[in-house]
Specification:
Blueprint: E1 2-5, H1 10-21, E2 29-32, E3 53-55, E4 61-62, H2 65-72, H3 87-113, H4 122-141, H5 152-167, H6 178-187, H7 191-194
Parallel strand pairs: 1-2
Antiparallel strand pairs: 1-3, 3-4
């Protein structure tokens, strides 16, 4: 399998963490891809021109990260990251959605900030910043229930908080969120997290 890959994408990191946790890292070849290049060939694997996209051995392409992660979770015999139908599944999927949404807001804010002066929208940047803060507060509110079990929800939260440390370190997301900070400190002590630190 080939994974269209960017070393700084939190969504790619989430998928790579899943691959490692599922014992599939050796079955996934990371293919460096610049989704923003005008001549990118990524669109043949994902019409949205976003990473990650996973190309299977038969040429079928899967996207985006929630779909890829769930597919990988079907390819091993260990504990599932996606719980079966029931309250635990919906909690894990909701946590993944919140983490992914926070990443979306962080990336949109970053990209908007890179636009030339005079083209930036301060109100758009503030909207994304506020969404990030609300999402972090939501994670803090339920940090006590995250526990030590690994699900797609906790993997997504780990990848997201790692992204904030990478791109928004000066904003100190831990300040005022002691439960989330304590959980992250414990939960990030995993091989899959340490081996997927984004490259500058």
């Amino acid at each position: 399998m080939k994974l269209r890959h960017s070393p700084t994408s939190p969504f790619v990191r989430k998928v790579m963490m899943v691959a490692i946790e599922c014992g599939l890292e050796g079955s996934v070849e990371a293919v460096p891809t610049n989704a923003w290049a005008p001549d990118t060939d990524l669109i043949k694997d994902n019409p949205l021109s976003k990473v990650p996209a996973l190309v299977l051995e038969d040429g079928t392409a899967l996207y985006d990260s929630p779909v890829i992660a769930e597919y990988l979770d079907t390819l091993h015999d260990g504990p599932r990251l996606f719980p079966p139908t029931g309250p635990a599944r919906w909690a894990a999927l909701r946590q993944q959605a919140l983490a992914d949404g926070l990443c979306d807001a962080a990336i949109l804010r970053l990209r908007e900030g890179m636009r030339p002066e005079g083209e930036k929208s301060p109100s758009w940047i503030e909207r994304q910043r506020a969404a990030m803060e609300r999402s972090l507060d939501g994670m803090e509110a339920e940090a006590g229930s995250l526990g030590d079990s690994l699900t797609i929800g906790t993997v997504a939260i780990l990848a997201t908080l790692g992204y904030l440390d990478f791109r928004y370190a000066a904003e100190e997301w831990r300040k005022g969120r002691p439960a989330l900070a304590a959980w992250f400190e414990r939960a990030s002590d995993r091989d899959s997290f340490r081996r997927t630190v984004p490259a500058a």
